[in-house]
Specification:
alpha/beta, 44% helix, binds D-glutamic acid
Length: 257
């Protein structure tokens, strides 16, 4: 039976969703969480949509069977591939997805240039095309895949010389853009924030959908009267299809500001 004591399930292709878990924890530190990262199968973003849909269903359903009271798909890629079908199959179960925070970026200035950093899968799916069509008159929107960041974060090199070198090359064509905003449209990317700032300057505007997703999760759980007692002590269970990524998960969680 699902009760207030049931955990919130959080899934991602790997350790990226920890950036969402952190925001959930900051907002609801009294809840119980099970975080499942699928690092054995990462990266998701370069694979066919059907394969990601299958993996996401498998990982989500396992945690739902274990009695989760809500599911946070802390992965833009898995959301684009599977969230609509999961919601169709489980219409009354709270399922929260991630999508690139294009809206606040596009509306942040007078026709800014918005670079949406996301995986190839996220950028090619119709969910993203729908988002672009809503804001294409407000901003110049550029989709930019960055699979190297996912690899470096999964390899424990989020804040490294290799990351600086990769980003320096990646951003080279955009160095002279005025009013530049960067959307972190993949949950692995907030871990590269320090490096992005070193390369693009301290005041580059960064947009991260994790904060909104955490607020939305709280609202949905509250609507169902399933929030845990405010005095309860929260806990997090870190799980991963590759055991070797559990320590890294904990470190990334602790270190993210
Ligand atoms: N963390 C995932 C996202 O938010 C994708 C990373 C991957 O390619 O596995 O899109």
């Amino acid at each position: 039976m699902i009760t207030c004591e049931s955990p919130i399930a959080v899934i991602d292709s790997g350790v990226g969703g920890i950036s969402v878990l952190k925001r959930l924890w900051q907002l609801m530190p009294n809840e119980k969480y099970i975080y499942f990262g699928d690092s054995k199968n990462a990266p998701y973003g370069v694979k066919p949509t059907d394969e990601i849909k299958k993996l996401t269903f498998k990982n989500a359903e396992k945690l739902m069977e274990r009695g989760a009271k809500a599911l946070v798909i802390a992965c833009n890629t898995a959301t684009a591939a599977a969230a609509a079908d999961l919601r169709e199959k489980y219409p009354s179960f709270p399922i929260i997805g991630l999508e690139p925070a294009l809206k606040p970026a596009a509306l942040s200035g007078d026709h800014p240039t918005v670079i949406v950093m996301a995986t190839e899968l996220t950028l090619r799916e119709k969910k993203f095309a729908g988002l672009v069509s809503r804001f294409e008159n407000d901003a110049k929107i550029i989709g930019l895949p960055a699979p190297g960041i996912v690899e470096l974060v999964e390899g424990g090199k989020a804040d490294s010389r290799e990351m600086d070198e990769y980003l320096t090359k990646l951003f080279l064509p955009f160095r002279d853009e005025k009013q530049l905003c960067i959307v972190l449209g993949c949950t692995h990317f907030p871990f590269a924030k320090k490096s992005i700032r070193r390369v693009m300057g301290e005041d580059v505007l960064l947009f991260d959908g994790a904060f909104g997703a955490a607020r939305h999760t709280k609202e949905l759980i509250e609507e169902k009267n399933l929030l845990r007692d405010e005095n309860a002590k929260g806990e997090i269970l870190f799980e991963n299809s590759d055991e070797g990524h559990i320590e890294l998960s904990k470190t990334l969680f602790e270190e993210l500001e």
